[in-house]
Design a protein that fits this description.
Number of strands: 4
Shape: globular
Oligomer: single chain
CATH class of the largest domain: Mainly Alpha
Distance between the termini: 22 Å
CATH topology of the largest domain: Glutathione S-transferase Yfyf (Class Pi), Chain A, domain 2
Helix content: 40-55%
Number of domains: 2
Strand content: 5-15%
Radius of gyration: 17 Å
Strand order of the largest sheet: 2-1-3-4
Order of helices and strands: EHEHEEHHHHHH
Largest sheet: 4 strands, mixed
Number of helices: 8
């Protein structure tokens, strides 16, 4: 059985729980509280020298840190990964975009506002992070004008990777409510492209979220957090 070392309110960890639940892959969860330094202990550093979560441990005992690397491994030979080589590269393209342009800005904004509740302390940095977060959402919005999903017209791990923090971006002060009607959808404009993509992913994930605690899928709006202290890629 797979083992997932995680901080359950991290969006990066949520990606793996959602993918494994949708793929029907059994796994056990091992909680590591990054706010208490549990990912910096000698025992955990022996698992991941980078001291960050999530870490996926395979049934044969191999360890795989980094959420998007683990997503690629889990999705191999499944409906969540295209079979075409070029489309596989496009999946990676969007996952790299998520980790470089999207997550560092949206997750950090949310952490400062929603988790720490210190907007004044981070006011200067927050403005820049939110601007870059909006720019990342605008890139997504433009792409979705022509396609229903990010790659190949089909749901894939590229969508999972981008959904994890997009659907809680409003908690980081990024534009959300005008597209959603229920304070959940995030987009960079008032067009319907982002709304349609979000609604489709929400429908795919809602069953797992609402009924998935036994399967390891925690309702992620209960407090996804990310910090420099240990909630990694």
């Amino acid at each position: 059985m797979y083992r997932l070392y995680e901080f359950s309110s991290s969006g990066n960890c949520y990606k793996l729980r959602l993918a494994m639940a949708q793929l029907g892959v059994p796994f056990e969860r091992v909680e590591k509280d990054i706010t208490r330094g549990e990912t910096r202990s000698d025992d955990f550093l022996a698992i991941n020298p980078n001291g960050r979560i999530p870490v996926l441990v395979t049934p044969d005992g191999r360890t795989l840190p980094e959420s998007n690397a683990a997503l690629c491994y889990l999705a191999r030979d499944s409906q969540l990964m295209p079979t075409d080589a070029f489309e596989q590269a496009q999946v990676l393209q969007w996952m790299f975009f998520e980790q470089y342009n999207h997550e560092p800005n949206i997750a950090t904004s949310r952490y400062w506002l929603h988790v720490l509740g210190e907007p004044e302390k981070y006011a200067d940095g927050l403005k820049e992070k939110q601007q870059k977060g909006h720019e990342a959402l605008a890139v997504m919005e433009r792409h979705l004008q022509a396609v229903p999903f990010f790659v190949g017209g089909r749901y894939s791990i590229a969508d999972i990777a981008l959904y994890a923090y997009t659907h809680v971006a409003d908690q980081g002060g990024l534009l959300a409510t005008e597209l959603s009607g229920n304070q959940g959808v995030v987009g960079a404009s008032k067009s319907t492209a982002g709304l349609c993509w979000y609604a489709g992913l929400k429908a795919r994930s809602s069953g797992w979220v609402l009924h998935g605690k036994a399967a390891g899928v925690t309702p992620c709006r209960e407090g996804i957090t990310d910090s420099d202290g240990g909630s990694g890629a």
